[in-house]
Amino acid sequence: MARTEYWNDPAAPKPNTLIPASNLLVARGDGAILLQRRRDTGQWALPGGAQDIGESPAQCAVRECEEETGIVAEVTGLLGVYSPPGHVVAYSDGEIRQAFEVTYIGKPVGGTPTVNEEADGVRWVLPGELDELDIHVSMRLQIGHFLSGEYPHVM
């Protein structure tokens, strides 16, 4: 399903849903961050997705990370809660979400970076390489908070 993300865009459509989602910012000991390239937008992003009934936000983040990247990780902290009203995601099926993401910090404990139906690229990225990648502003904001040590962050 195609999606279009808006960031503080007055022309963005009005949201009709709010669905809890979780991301996991996984960092290795050398400072590299795990990113996936989304098939639906072509942009690099933290692994994450919608929370299922019966799981906690942290369990959702760990599950989504493994499903989308092949990396098994454990949560080590909370980066923040991100739900700015100006971050709107419109899907081709008519759903228009206001983003609501609980973003955790984690460390890898197993697995191998693996592409799948949601991600056509998975890689470890050093902070100095981030500017070379197409990363949505919402993900850049979260990664920036992590790199600056500015967390937990609520917006």
UniProtKB/TrEMBL annotation:
Its cofactor is Mg(2+). The keyword Hydrolase applies. InterPro entries: Nudix_hydrolase, NUDIX_hydrolase-like_dom_sf, NUDIX_hydrolase_dom. SUPFAM superfamilies: Nudix. PROSITE patterns: NUDIX. Transmembrane segments: none annotated. The keyword Metal-binding does not apply. Keywords: Hydrolase. It holds the Pfam family NUDIX. Residues 17-147 form the Nudix hydrolase domain. This is NUDIX domain-containing protein.
